[in-house]
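Usage

Read records sequentially. Each one opens with the input sequence:
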Amino acid sequence: MQNPYDYYITPEEYEAAAKNGISNELLTRRIRNLGWDKEIAMTKPSRYNANRWKNIKEIALKNGISHSTYTARIKKGWRLMQSVSHL
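and closes with the structure output:
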């Protein structure tokens, strides 16, 4: 049985996960519902976002758009082509 504190997610852990493209909701689900190890939960990319990024990475980087900027724009509701083409 895991320690109850294993399920507590610190603000720093949420921040580290966000830098890796992991939303707060996904991190919470992975740790609390699925019982994932925190390190894996914070670093393993979402299959959906990872596959999408692979497809448009070259375009985004040519336009000076980083992965974290792209992810933030998608979360804000930007359309795909807008998110990888506007500075």
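Summary fields computed downstream for this record:
- Residues 47-62 form the longest helix (16 residues).
- The CA atoms of residues 73 and 82 lie 9 Å apart.
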